[in-house]
Design goal:
two-stranded antiparallel sheet, 1% strand, Farnesyl Diphosphate Synthase, disordered N terminus, 15 helices, 311 residues, mainly alpha, binds geranylgeranyl diphosphate, globular
Length: 311
C-alpha cells in the first residue's frame, strides 16, 4: 500500500465544524443492523445452528465502524447511503468472520468478544469455524447482488473485497501476527502486520463507499490514503487500549497482547510515543479529506472519534 507524502496540514485536532457523530453512529448502526438482518438467513432456517451462530456474533454489539466508514465515504462522494449499504454489510460480515476465527483456540484463544462469550464457547469450535466461513461467503453473496456502477462493475467490487480479505492482506497480517508472537520484531515489520491485519479492511470499507457513489479516480485515491492512515491509527489505538483499559470496557480480554508476547507499538516504543504515532496518522488521514472540499464531515468526525475512543 502507498503512503502519502508529508504536507502542511490544516487539520490537527479533529473536525473543524460541529457534526453530530453520536447521532450519525446511532442511526447508521440501526440501519446496518436492519440491513444485515434482511441479508442473513433467519435463525430458524435449517440448519438453524449455523444461522444462530452467525447471527450471535454479528449482532453481539460491535461498534460498526467499518460500515459507518463505508456509508460516510459514499456521502463524501455525493452518493446515496442506501446504495452503499450492501457493501457496508459485506464488510461487516468479513470483519465478524475474522473476529470469530481470531478468537478460536488455534489462534488467540479468547473467551470474550463484544462483551459476550466468544462464538466457539457457545457453539463449539466446529460450528464457530463454519460460522466464520459462512459469513465470509455471505459477504460475497451480498456484494454480488448489489447493482454495480458504471466505473465499478461487479468485478471491481468483488475484487476489492477479495484482495482486502485474501492471503496478501487480512490473512497475511494474521499469519505474520501469529508468527511474530514471542519474537522481537522491527517497527517496519510491525507496520507490515498492521497494514494487512487491520488497515486493509478499513481502507476497503471507505473505497467501497466511494465506489458505490461511482466516484472519480481522484476521490478513490483520497479515500485510499484516508483509509490507510485511519486503519493504521485504529490498530495502534487498539494496542494502546489493550494495556490501558479493562476487559469490561473493551468487551474482550484486556492485557492479552502482553500475555501472548505480541508485538505491539506500546511494547516496542512505549505508550506515549504510540499515542503520538496514532495522532500523526490521524492528521495524515484528515489531510486526505481536502479532496472533498468540506463534504467529508462524517469521515472527518469518524477519524477524530477513532483516535479518542476508549473501547
Ligand atoms: C482464516 C482461520 C482464519 C482466520 C482469519 C484474518 C483473521 C483470522 C483475523 C483478523 C485479525 C484481526 C482480528 C485483526 C484485528 C482488527 C481489529 C482491531 C479488530 C477489532 O475491531 P473493532 O474494535 O471490533 O472494530 P468490533 O467488535 O467493535 O467490531
Amino acid at each position: 500500500m502507498r503512503r502519502m507524502p508529508g504536507r502542511n496540514l490544516r487539520h490537527n485536532s479533529g473536525p473543524s465544524r460541529a457534526f453530530d457523530l453520536q447521532k450519525f453512529l446511532a442511526t447508521r448502526s440501526e440501519a446496518v443492523n436492519r440491513a444485515l438482518d434482511h441479508f442473513l438467513p433467519a435463525a430458524t432456517v435449517r440448519p438453524a445452528t449455523i444461522h444462530k451462530s452467525m447471527r450471535y456474533s454479528l449482532f453481539a454489539g460491535g461498534k460498526r465502524m467499518r460500515p459507518a466508514l463505508c456509508l460516510a465515504a459514499a456521502a463524501a462522494c455525493g452518493g446515496r447511503e442506501a446504495e452503499a449499504m450492501p457493501l457496508a454489510c459485506a464488510v461487516e460480515c468479513i470483519h465478524t468472520y475474522s473476529l470469530i476465527h481470531d478468537d478460536l483456540p488455534a489462534m488467540d484463544d479468547d473467551d470474550f468478544r463484544r462483551g459476550k462469550l466468544t462464538n466457539h464457547k457457545v457453539f463449539g469450535e466446529g460450528i464457530a469455524v463454519l460460522a466464520g466461513d459462512a459469513l465470509l461467503t455471505q459477504a460475497f453473496e451480498i456484494a454480488a447482488r448489489c447493482k454495480g456502477w458504471p466505473r465499478y462493475p461487479h468485478r471491481e467490487i468483488i475484487l476489492e473485497l477479495a484482495s482486502a480479505s485474501g492471503s496478501l492482506q487480512l490473512i497475511a497480517g494474521q499469519v505474520a501476527d501469529l508468527e511474530a508472537e514471542g519474537k522481537k520484531i522491527s517497527a517496519r515489520h510491525l507496520r507490515y502486520i498492521h497494514e494487512r491485519k487491520t488497515s486493509a479492511l478499513l481502507c476497503c470499507s471507505v473505497r467501497l463507499g466511494g465506489m458505490s457513489a461511482n466516484c472519480p479516480a481522484a476521490q478513490l485515491k483520497a479515500l485510499t490514503d484516508f483509509g490507510y492512515h485511519v486503519g493504521l491509527a485504529f490498530q495502534v489505538i487498539d494496542d494502546i487500549l489493550d494495556v490501558t483499559q479493562t476487559s469490561e470496557t473493551l468487551g474482550k480480554t484486556a492485557g492479552k497482547d502482553t500475555r501472548a508476547q505480541k508485538a505491539t507499538y506500546p511494547s516496542l516504543i512505549g505508550l506515549e510515543k504510540s499515542r503520538k504515532i496514532a495522532a500523526d496518522l490521524t492528521t495524515r488521514a484528515f489531510s486526505s479529506l481536502r479532496a472533498f472540499r468540506g463534504k467529508a464531515d462524517a469521515l472527518e468526525a469518524l477519524a477524530g472519534f477513532l483516535l479518542k475512543r476508549d473501547r
